[in-house]
Each structure stands twice: as C-alpha cells, then as structure tokens.
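[Automated response] Your request has been received and processed.

Submitted sequence:
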Amino acid sequence: MEGSSTETQEYTMPRIGDDAPGFTAATSRGNVSLSDYRGRWVVLFSHPSDFTPVCTTEFVAFQEIYPELQKMDTDLLGLSVDSVSSHIAWIRSIEENFDITIEFPIIADLDREVAMKYGMIMPGESQVETSRAVFVIDSSQTIRSIIYYPLTTGRNMKEIVRLVQALQATDEHGVSTPADWEPGDKVVVSPPETQEEAAERANEEGIEYIDWYISKKSL
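Generated structure:
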C-alpha cells in the first residue's frame, strides 16, 4: 500500500569457512559479544526451549564436557529464544535436581536475531523454536563445522569433543583425520600431487603405506 512500508531483514545461512556472524546478546551470565571469545575456540549451540526433558539432559551432558573443552581453549555458549529469567530459573532447577553447576552462559535470544543470523530456526520443523544446532568456531572466528539435530534427538557430546580435537589436530599438524579418529590414532597424510611423489610414497619413513593415495602416520 502506498505510504506504508514493511522492513524485513533477511540473512543467509552461514557455511563452513565463513566468518562467524558477530553479535552482542544478553545471557544468563550478563551481556556477551562473540568478539569477546577471539583467540579461543567456541562451541555455539542452540536448544529448542527451557524446561523441556531432552534439553535438560543435554545441559547436564554439556556441563560434563565443559571442563574438557576448557582444557582445549574452547568455550561453550548456549542459545534459545527464552528470556534471561527463564534461563536462570531453569538452570537453578537443573542444578538442584542433578547436583551439577552450569558454568557456561546461555543467550536469551528473544528477538531471534542471533538465531536468524546462524540459521538456527527450521521453518519446516518449527516456526518459533530453535533447532539443535552446533557451530564450531575457531580462534579466528571462522566457522569450522555445523551440525543440526532434529527437535526429538539429543546430541552426542563425545562427538562434539572429538570434532574439536580433530579440527585442532588438523590445524596444528596439517593433516586430515580418518573415520572414527580419536586422539592417539594415526592420521591421514595428504596424497601425492605428482607421479614422482606417488612413486616415492611407498618408501617414505614413518608412513603406513596402503596405496599411493592413502597413507597414515602417527603424530
């Protein structure tokens, strides 16, 4: 209609390798900005709603892996569209019922600004609730991994820890990690780029040679 306008802001869902969208938000532990975490890794995750059974089990499990992540210079940051007051009440309930202290902050994304920037709401599943998304953000604030789970399925915490370990090993040593890799397992060596290098690969010291294009080594 002439004389009226409706402004809507559209966001493109970020991809692996993109700069992590910046934000400043209220949390259960005060205001935080993504830039506060520069120089450290961040596991940013969303959950559908406070005071729900699957989310409650997840928060207990996230807290259980939190000390291990901290040893890897990695912080946890949760998010849902609930209020700070709701977060505080829910955290107190979890701590009382499970004898555990929730040490990481939870974003109160009431206006869904952060959720929209990160593509955390799946319209086909829910128009309101955030899905179970996990974003691994490195110390340069680049998105390194994205995982989505449906509302009905709780996340595997061991895999989140393993994922951060694998990404950090890749950065430190310039290698790749094979299926089911765990710290201490052999890693995958980059394949040769020329015929000459392929011919020499079988004779390289310290290499578990399988074929010219796939070999492993210990770190």
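Summary generated for your ticket: Confidence is low (pLDDT under 50) at residues 1-8. Residues 53-71 form the longest helix (19 residues).
If you did not submit this request, please reply to this message.
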